[in-house]
Amino acid sequence: MPETMPESTPLPAAGTADAAALRGLAGGAVHLPGDPLYDEARMPWNLQVDEHPAAVAYPADPHEVARIVRAAAESGLKVAPQGTGHGAPPLAGRLGDAVLLRTSAMTGLRVDAATRTARAEAGVLWGDVVARAARVGLAGMHMSSPGVGVVGSSLGGGVSWYSRQHGLQCSAITAVEVVLADGTFVRATDDQDPELLWAARGGTGGFGVVTALEFDLLPVRTAYAGMLAWDWRHTRRVLTAWGEWTADAPESVTSVARIFQVPDVASLPGQLRGRKMVMIDAVALGDAEAGARSIAPLRALRPEIDTFAQMPAADIAHLQLDPQEPTAVYANSVLVHGFPADAVDALVAAAGPGSGSNLLFVELRQLAGALARPAPRGGALDHLPAAFLVLGVGLDVGTGWGAVRADAMRILDSLAPWSSRASYLSMAYEAAARRGFAAAAYERLVRIRRTVDPDGVFVAPQAAAGS
Amino acid sequence: MDGQPQLNLHVLGELTATRDGAVVDLGGRRQRAVLAGLVIHRDQVVPADRLVECVWGEQPPANAPGALQAYVSHLRRRLEPDATARQREGVIARAGPGYVLRLPPDAVDAWTFEAAVESAAGESPVEAACTLDTALKAWRGPAYADYAGEAWVEAECARLTELRAVARERLLAARLELGEAQLVIGDLEALVKEDPLREERWRLLTLALYRAHRQAAALEALRRARTVLADELGVDPGPALRALEAEVLAQSPDLDGPPAARAADATALVPRPRTPDGIVDRDHELTLLRERLEDLADGTSGCVLVEGPAGIGKTRLLDELRRLAVAAGVWVRSARSSALEQDFEWGVVRQLFGAGVDDVLGRAERFAVLRGLCELTTRLAEQAPFVLCVDDVQRCDEASLQFLAYLVPRLEELPVLIVLTMRTGEPQHADDLVELVADETVTVVRPAPLTEQGTAALVADRLGRGADAFVATCHRMTSGNPLLLRQLLRALADQGVPPDAAHVDTVRAVGSRAITSLVTLRLRRMPERVSIVAHAVAVLGPTADLRSVADLARRPEEEVAAALDVLARGEILRDGQPGQPLDFVNPLVRDAIHADIPPGERALLHARMERRLKSSSSRPAHAGVPTP
Lengths: 467, 628
Description:
The complex is a heterodimer. By secondary structure, chain A is an alpha+beta fold.
């Protein structure tokens, strides 16, 4: 063997050579650029994000996570934890020198009926929790899509169908298990490492690889839930009436109004397919009688479709018909204080009939109730200071992502007079991290991150703390 | 012979006997052991030295045969006091090298019990409940209670205990069918508590609770079952429990059918044997093998080589061929080459022909041996056509390989079908193998990777109908390798992952692992009493059987048998036929598990293995000890 390298040997490209140290870890579940399954492994749920990380690893337990983190740090690489990749967009452009550490192999889930709690590892999806909890008459504060990961969505806050009564999902977290930058494993609770638990409650992560969460479940077996739908020429009438109705709606009811340009795909109900609709989805905790009373004013608007019924909690996770398979989407959102008639006009002009908007849907989520009050347990994000979250979601319909983004920005701009200074980072990928938190909370998050990850090994999912 | 006194023996409890209802004094413990030894073997002749073992164990006194005769003679006098000494061979008869018990089937309580359980399986719930209730009352304590823990009664005790457990389950099942749901809940709770790993008990309890209009409690019972199975065995509930769960959740009307309509269904409660997993995408290969078997029946020889990479399903094809052959009444001689035995001359030939081949192998010249083996093959084929299977021929010992290469061109019109499997991607140095593969009479079959449709079929079989994106990802991650796919699906099933589009990345995550780490990871998540059994099988290699594994792992055979079942169900061990040696689903899996044994445990197992080999010279054919 020659002592020195022949001159003709090219220097290894940055990143790729370093990641070679990871090969063989995680039982072989490490993919480097050029490996046959690299392209498969690097794709997040949101296919709009097309990153080429230095390596993709799928560790199956905290030991394997720790070895990946140590090997990455020793190789001068960063680590970006990712579950399903629903929230991948903020990572775009930041993974070239990072190991994408995907948590999907950690699928352990325990539901304890007696204490009404769950322990979900980082690869568990909300659909898994909902199905398991329903067997013992419990429900989790799941997101609108059952395919979203529990850990990622909980770290980011978590607005659920039950949130107006029970607050953010992150406030239900009672323990977090995390592998830190030096490879140590910590289980943080209110008594042990409470700062990490505080950061886990809505701080969006970025302080380590969260391998599992423990959180409270709700004793909910059934709820009165369903969808009302009208042709979208009724958008103004329906949204105006809905806006007024929300002011007096009880906290047991959570609703979402949508302008939905329904794609013509076989997985959707025939009566919706290919049509443009305005819809209201809602979940009312309690019995059918009370639920029907609550939504009576909306029914008075004479919807074309009415699917409301008392349904098992497990079915509520599928209420919104979100696509389950990986999809390329663009999303952006704004928090607003109110939704008066002027705001309805502005929104309809930006996204309704005649607007020229091609967005898949524009969604107005009803907040307030418990969401507006600081959670007793506290946390980096302990409430949402707004009345509605307005979310625009678009697919590339052939006009390019620039046009999709422009459609979404038009909505955000149209609602500027009512918008809050704050952003809900889980759905506002372009917002500055500082806007996701109260000022003191943000400073505290930055301090915690600097303490546990002084060398900045982790790529923060939302650039929440100082990057 | 009217008026003959009625003699009854009782072994479901302590060993006792009655004559016309009066208790018979059977003498001391050793003397009674002779009778117990005869009862266990029912109407089989028991050699005297076997009885000696029952009485004295491994260290009999010098005069054991004489003492045994004395015990037999005393027993005869007690059992048939009215007969003269010469006539007293009615109950304990001398036969060949030993003795045999001559009693009607209803004279021994264990025999009656067994017959009752069998007959109840075909009866209506009313009759079955009555039959089983009566039968269970015969039990007065653990079977052969006086000899509990002694090796010679262990297997029979275990068998009877299992039979009793089944009988108790079926009694409650029958009462449940008779509409006694509320009444049997307490008994079922007790049964579950006794043995929470028997899924049938959870099934009945759930059904009883549901029929007693306690749906929440029924679901809670299922949840408890799931937890127990997960904690104790690391497995999910079986299909019966899972199906019941779905029915309870759906409030299926099937659950509460009128008792009268279900009367004929009692046999459905008998646990059904698992059906072997479907082979997919192998129509062409199976057709060819079937045709060759038909040719063989017509007296035509053949040689088929199944060739492909690890895990493509070569051994499964061989298994299927064996099954077809046995079904057609054709003899099959099988051998499996292994790296451990590759240096052992004539290892594969010995596996194929057994001890009868020793004379031939003893000949001085290699050529004489080859000719002798050929003649032996001819002689056997002239008696009846047969199939000769060698699995993993790339690891065959050099001498046996030479025989195969010598035999194939000389088969001519002999009714012999030779089927070999060969793993590609391994260095092959042996000229004989090259020659064999190149022989023009050899048909080479190369099983292709599974298609996406085949993948979908296996996904549906394991996890339920899979979403397109889920199936496509399974297919891409495994490149259509059936072994990898099966292990992937097994791991996903272990974790309760549903086959929907949302779990695509779970498939990527699990499917990214090397097959070996997939298996070792799953094994590490199983309880220690299962993993140690897998470790022992890995250390023993081709010599592994129930007894040797139990010996090496220092665990009771029942426990080992249960663990082996878990391992086979989990597709870590092959689901072999009874009598076949234990083996992993693939040699790679064996190597990986062997490498994953914690160092201390491995040293211990190997030390025991070597002691075992030293103390027994019974298996010189398997002298190889895998190196740690």
